[in-house]
Amino acid sequence: MTEITSKELELISDALTAEGLICKKARAYSKTLTDVDLAATMAKIADEHEQRYNALLGLIGG
Questions:
Q1: How far is CA 29 from the centre of its chain?
Q2: pLDDT digits 0-9 by tens, 8-31
Q3: In the chain, how many H helices and how many E strands?
Q4: CA 58 to CA 51: how far, in whole Å?
Q5: Do the beta carbons of residue 56 and residue 16 sit within 8 Å?
Q6: First vs last C-alpha separation in the chain
């Protein structure tokens, strides 16, 4: 496996923070929205960002 530089680690860390925040917000919205279709869309968005978060985490062996 290729060594990750400190700059790459910093960028991955920033991306993890952003993806985690977006996922949490979308998940919260999906649980509070009364429009069923919109709530389902927000849940899907949350799932997509959670997948990205996990993929980024995998890059650093987390």
A1: 15
A2: 999 999 999 999 999 999 999 999
A3: 2, 0
A4: 11
A5: yes
A6: 15
Can you read off the two tokens belonging to residue 31? 């649980």
Average per-residue pLDDT for the chain: 95
Distance between CA 53 and CA 50 in Å, rounded? 5
Tokens representing 50 are 């959670």
CB 16 within 8 A of CB 53: yes
Long-range contacts, stretch 49-57, CB < 8 angstroms, 24+ apart: 49/19, 49/20, 49/22, 49/23, 50/19, 50/23, 52/15, 52/19, 53/16, 53/19, 53/20, 53/23, 56/12, 56/15, 56/16, 56/19, 57/16
